[in-house]
Amino acid sequence: MGTQNFKIAVVVVSLLALLIVVPYCNSFVVLLATRAMVFAILAMSLDILLGFTGLPSLGQAAYFGVGAYLTAILANNYGFGLKWDFWLMIPIGMAVGGVLAAFFGLFAIRATGTYFLMITLALGQCVWGLAYRWNSMTGGDNGITMKGGRPQFGFDLSNHINFFYLTFAFFAATLLALYVLVRSPFGKSLLGIRERELRMRILGYNVWLHKYVAFIIAGAFGGLSGVLWAHANGIVTPETLVLTTSVDALLMTVLGGAGTLVGGAIGSAIVFGLREYVSTLVPWWQYVLGGVYVLTILYLPTGLMGIPERIKQWRNSQKKHETAKMASAPS
Amino acid sequence: MNTQFWVVQAFNGISYGALLFLVGAGLSLIFGVMRIVNLSHGSYFLLGGYVALSVIGTTGSWLLSIPIATLTIAVVGLIMERLFLRPEGHAKLVRDAVIALGTALVIRLLIGPILPRLLPGQIGAIIQVTLVVIVLAIPIFLLLQRISAVAIEADLLRQVLMTVGFAFLFQQAALDIWGGNNFDIQPPSALTQSLVIGDIYLPLYRLFMIVGALVIGIALWLAMEKTRMGAAVRATVDDAQMARGVGIDTNKISMLIFALGAGMAALGGVIGGAFLGVYPGLDFEMLPIAFAVVIIGGMGSLGGAAIGALLVGLADNFGKALFPELAYFTLYAPMVLILAIKPTGLFGRD
To answer: Which of A60, A112, A118 best tests the B interface by mutation, with the highest count of B CBs <10 A?
Structure first.
């Protein structure tokens, strides 16, 4: 329990440091941190599926995109969500993500392994196809520019630092909510399903329902990140929905460490940092990104969050080795 | 909407299906034999087109570009499979060395602007870079030797992400080598004419695609059904462990099939370059469509890939012509339904 409290303390301190340091940085860093936090919410929502339930989804961008498109369409066509009603947009975005996931889950949850990967890919592509071709609604390839700017309700969100604070609040709240979720009995059952589905089934758990609910929760938080993304980015294009967005979310989660929640946030910060920062230095940043994929997959089985544990294990094995040597040495 | 419309659309759909067969058949066989969800398959398609462009640019021969592009990309696929997807024995050392060199190169390029002259004096830039990279690579290589790499063979997600990583690397490499412009591959003039039947114009090139895919499909089918090698491949698809048990070298099979699949995708890139074009981003556009082909037909089945390609080709063409706003939806929704109802696809074996 002591280590658990220590870990929580580290996370809280890092969050506070982020909150205090970033507003003093230049606007580039503020924007970068804001976007990374929006994606961190998406990566953490995916972690509920991937890390805690063992469902690798290749279509998490669908909920992200639906939340973003809904925000943009409501704001542009009806002026909705640009004043205090922004606070209504948040539950609406989560509900739409959740409802979409509830519908998609009916198809996807029964599938396992490769078939789950494939069906989530297909579902994500369905949503992408609609966004890409349904010109009258989504603006097609050009997407939708948020004409009304960011919401203003006494607290002017067009100011990047204010928007950073808002995103931070949602990021921290998501982290807390999902942390509570995975520590709850429900979350423990999800872990059980990840580890050994058959045993959970024999113990009488409704495995399908557990997975289904986890799928809906992940979709809801995906929708939330989409709402924030529409305002963070200022434009919503089919790019938000492409396969590579889903894959990036997967990489972020695996890079940080699946099944740790915080890992998704760390992964998102690194991927965004690499993409946005390195791409300003050199034109070939994608080599770095591709390299990160390959290195993570080959050498970081438990992600960055797993490194302390791996070092500890390695040290222990070294120690054992030494004591074994000492014991075998003639005295 | 007269007969002419339906005939032309059906013809276009079938010829697009012929192209999709080239891409999908390889992907399907790779999955069947290795159980790998290969997300770099779209890259082979794109790279095939680019290599063909280079060959046409230097030799002027379209005919020559087909075998060269196919073979080059088959070798690229082979190297990727041997070093990164199924490394055995010394291949692991080579893989670590490649990664160490690559990482060192990236680090050198990143610190380049900060430290323009790491080594003073008369040493030329290339020698300097080489020296720095080698000096950097050695500790990285030693470090990688200490950290044992994860065996990704049994881990679905890791394989997927590994192939995505390569897709990004290929994408950047293509951008560096061939630039960001859109290109078209010009087929020889004999193929640019049209066949006129009544008042319907059928482009000869599309007929050539259909015939070409038929020939390749039949050749593959014969190889799979009538040769000893083909029997070994089918046995590996059905039960790799059992196949190994009876003495089939599944390692060699997976190597061959991966190269074959990559080569066929590249061939598709050359052929398709004439009307799809060759441009950055084509790789990730082609990839999900190829998966739709494989899923609808059933993974690991050649006949399934043919039927899947035909259905997807037709669905794509008629979808775009009849319901333009739902065009891609009409492509992927059937994929979802088939996965939900019969996950092994129309012709898949489980």
So the answer is: A118
Are A282 and B158 inside 8 Å of each other by CB?
no
Who among B162, B329, B340 is closest to A293 (CB)? Answer: B162
The Cα–Cα gap between B170 and B77 comes to: 11
Distances (CA, A) of B131 to A282, B138, B145: 22, 11, 21
Residue A190 and residue A182: Cα distance in Å, rounded? 8
Is a pLDDT exceeding 70 seen at residue B278? yes
What ipTM is given for this predicted complex?
0.86
| Rounded Cα–Cα distance for residues A182 and A103 (Å) | 23
Residues 231-260 (A) with a CB less than 8 A from some CB of B: 242-244, 247, 250-251, 254
Output phi, psi for A204, to 5 deg: 100, 5
Residue B194 backbone phi and psi in degrees, to 5: -125, 150
What is the torsion angle, in degrees rounded to the nearest 10, for the CA atoms of residue A296, residue A298, residue A302 and residue A303? Answer: -10
Write out the two tokens for B254: 């997976």
Q: Name the phi and psi angles at B113, rounded to 5.
A: -60, -30
Report the SS3 class of residue B78. helix
Instruction: Determine contact: B169 vs chain A, CB below 8 A.
Output: yes
Closest CB from A128, A284, A297 relative to B172: A284
Token readout for A247 is 């894959």
Show which of residues 236-275 on chain B sit within 8 Å of chain A, judged by CB atoms: none
Region A195-218: what's the mean pLDDT?
90
By the 10 Å C-beta count (0-12 exposed, 13-18 middle, 19+ buried), B83 is classed as middle
In what helix (H) or strand (E) does residue B42 lie, and over which residues does it extend? helix B41-59
Count contacts between A and B (CB, < 8 Å).
160
Q: How many CB atoms lie within 10 A of CB B9?
A: 17
Strands A144-145 and A235-236: antiparallel
Residues A2-55: tens digit of each pLDDT: 677 888 888 888 888 888 888 888 888 888 899 999 999 999 999 999 989 989
Find the residue in A nearest to B331 (Cα): A126
For B25-55, write each residue's pLDDT tens digit.
989 988 888 888 899 999 999 999 999 999 9
Question: Is residue A123 less than 8 Å (CB to CB) from chain B?
Answer: yes
- Residues A196-212, mean pLDDT to the nearest whole number: 89
Where do runs of H (alpha helix) occur along chain B? 3-34, 41-59, 62-80, 90-111, 125-146, 156-178, 204-226, 228-238, 240-245, 250-272, 282-297, 302-322, 329-341
- Of A150, A130, A148, A155, the C-alpha closest to A65 is A130
Question: What pTM, to 2 d.p., does this model score?
Answer: 0.89
Cα(A256)–Cα(A262) distance, rounded to whole angstroms? Answer: 7
Rounded Cα–Cα distance for residues A159 and A23 (Å): 11
